[in-house]
Specification:
Layout lengths: L29 H9 L5 H15 L15 E2 L5 E8 L13 E3 L3 E5 L4 E7 L4 E7 L15 E7 H8 L4 E3 H6 L7 H13 L4
Parallel strand pairs: 2-6
Antiparallel strand pairs: 1-2, 3-8, 4-5, 6-7
Length: about 200
């Protein structure tokens, strides 16, 4: 019979990619796994994580590691909680037309990984949402690592709550209608800080 034990949250250390798999021949490095698993930066899954990394760099907080199950995606040095959402015109699959730009904004139940407990009410957990559009429309020019191929639309969570209520998704045109303004990667940090200083958050 297994005894009850306390298993605290595991602290994950940042890897370099040079770490090797053990007891595997020939030598295989962690970077080999990363290249195998995460090279598709166009698909919906990894595009979202890539956008989080881009925004973390813009906010000067990409020196740590990404969380997996947090109630929001990025916690800036200025204590701003940021939720990142992405959409794109081009997909990895065959398309007959460009995709419509749409984002999920449904409320969630927050989970605390340190205590393994859930909040009692569903809500939008962040201070601000950053809606990221991979804006390239030509396959031959597509490069998700080029930050000029991204448009960013920061919106205060309280604005989403006031304007969209319990709505679960939103299109780009609606975001613009409720006041979202496009900014570039270079403008993103200053735009978010300006919103905070002017109590938009």
């Amino acid at each position: 019979m297994l005894e009850d034990q306390n298993y605290p949250a595991i602290i994950i250390e940042k890897k370099t990619g040079n770490e090797c798999f053990l007891n595997m021949e020939p030598t295989v490095r962690l970077s080999d796994f990363w290249a195998w698993a995460y090279s598709d930066l166009v698909g919906n899954t990894e595009r979202g994580k890539l956008a989080e990394f881009i925004i973390a760099n813009a906010m000067n907080c990409a020196d740590g590691i990404s969380g997996s199950w947090g109630s929001y995606d990025i916690h800036s040095p200025e204590e701003i909680k940021i939720e990142v959402k992405t959409s794109a015109y081009l997909q990895t699959w065959q398309q007959v037309k460009l995709s419509n730009i749409k984002f999920g904004i449904q409320k969630t139940i927050a989970w605390n990984p340190e205590t393994n407990t859930y909040s009692t009410e569903s809500a939008r957990q962040s201070d601000i949402y950053v809606f990221c559009v991979q804006n390239c429309k030509k396959q031959e020019e597509l490069n998700p690592l080029d930050v000029t191929q991204w448009d960013f639309y920061p919106v205060a969570t309280k604005t989403l709550n006031a304007k969209l209520g319990n709505q679960k998704s939103v299109g780009l045109s609606k975001l613009i209608n409720i006041g979202a303004k496009k900014c570039s990667y270079k403008e993103l940090r200053s735009t978010i800080l300006f919103m905070m200083e002017n109590k938009d958050i």
